[in-house]
TrEMBL record:
InterPro entries: Aminotrans_V_dom, PyrdxlP-dep_Trfase, PyrdxlP-dep_Trfase_major, PyrdxlP-dep_Trfase_small. The keyword Cell membrane does not apply. The keyword Transmembrane does not apply. Coiled coil: none annotated. This is Selenocysteine lyase/Cysteine desulfurase. It comes from Allokutzneria albata. Pfam families: Aminotran_5. GO terms for molecular function: lyase activity.
Length: 358
């Protein structure tokens, strides 16, 4: 079942059709910042892979092509070359590679209230003298000078606020400060060109609509040698299938040296979802998502934010009414978090409005 490559999501035969794909997602599902809903082409691919697993039909090397294709699609979405992307399993795992590699005594700047999968890996390096300093998100660019690394999310998990990437890039270049961007809450709904950053990490199971168990670390080539391969393993070998036994160490020359042994089913699903997303005009996806969030905020007499994520201060009664109306949301930092993605429509906005204005 297919739909036009753009335009508002609509329902046909129980399926939502949007941006050229079908989604088995119920009305009121606004919890994408927690768990993204895959297109049916992805669930079909994973289901077929599970069936092959159950029939003993696969060999380990059969999944290498999925790892390669998912890597290439992710690279396209964030503005890197595929050779500069390492495949991992979670956001904190790939961010931890950077955190564990910064020199002793490094000064790291992070956003106040940042998602801890980005900040905890650095805070855990305190025994090496690594000092982590928090600043308000809006002040990050002006506070860069005097720090060795800035680690910040492109879009904040708690409320959808965006860091000023242009200002951060300029400030970091002037100060000679390395930049680690977490794009987990951005890739899949925003057009991104992040190849200027030293490192970009992202987990796949939210806006990228992939199974949990896939994440990537994109590395600018001149920042690769600064990373220590703390989890060196056979899959990071120049030729993984010739790197299984015995010394000497023989890792890939590219960022692939940082790969960990892949979560196979996650990579199967990531290939399907990311190759689909990489064919879309992300400016159109962003316009669609932001139009819905801003429409909701206007109905609630609140100013638009320009983000796909909405954070609302609701009382217990309002939260109960949302749940009874079938609205799926998240609770973050004491507020109700909603996210509008490509499969959402005006129907979802109306559900929320009716519940809150009841």
């Amino acid at each position: 079942m297919r739909a036009d490559r753009g335009g508002a999501a609509h329902t046909l035969g129980g399926m939502r059709l949007a941006f050229g794909a079908s989604f088995d997602v119920p009305a009121g599902y606004l919890n994408t910042p927690s768990i993204g809903i895959p297109p049916t082409l992805t669930t079909d691919a994973v289901r077929e892979s599970v069936q092959r697993w159950g029939a003993g039909a696969d060999h380990p090397a059969d999944f290498d092509e999925h790892v390669r294709r998912a890597r290439a699609a992710f690279a396209k979405l964030v503005g890197f070359d595929a050779d500069d992307v390492a495949a991992g399993a979670s956001g904190s795992q790939v961010a931890g590679i950077v955190a564990a590699s910064v020199p002793d005594g490094s000064r790291v700047l992070v956003a106040r209230g940042e998602f801890t999968s980005l900040t905890f890996p650095f805070a855990a390096q305190a025994h090496r003298g690594v000092k982590v300093t928090e600043a308000d998100l809006a002040d990050i660019p002006s506070e860069v000078d005097g720090h060795d690394v800035v680690a910040v999310s492109v879009v904040q998990s708690a409320n959808g606020a965006e860091v000023d990437l242009a200002a951060l890039r300029e400030a970091a270049a002037a100060a000679g400060t390395r930049v680690l961007l977490d794009a987990t809450q951005a890739v899949g709904w925003m057009p991104l060109d992040l190849g200027w950053a030293d490192w970009v990490v992202a987990a796949a199971y939210k806006w990228m609509l992939c199974p949990r168990g896939a994440a990537w670390l994109a590395v600018r080539p001149d920042a690769l040698d600064e990373l220590v391969v703390h989890s060196a393993n056979w899959y990071g070998g120049e030729d993984p299938w010739q790197s299984i036994y015995g010394l000497p160490l023989r890792l890939a020359r590219s960022a692939r040296r940082l790969d960990i042994s892949p979560v196979w089913l996650a990579q199967v699903g990531a290939t399907a979802s990311l190759e689909y997303l990489s064919t879309l005009d992300m400016a159109e996806v962003r316009a669609h998502s932001v139009r819905l969030t801003d429409a909701l905020l206007a109905e609630l007499d609140l100013p638009g934010t320009g983000s796909a994520i909405v954070s609302l201060e609701l009382d217990d009664e309002q939260g109960r009414r949302l749940a009874e109306a079938g609205v799926r949301s998240g609770s973050r930092a004491g507020r109700t978090r909603l996210g509008f993605h490509l499969y959402n429509s005006e129907e979802d906005v109306e559900l929320v409005v009716r519940a809150l204005k009841h």
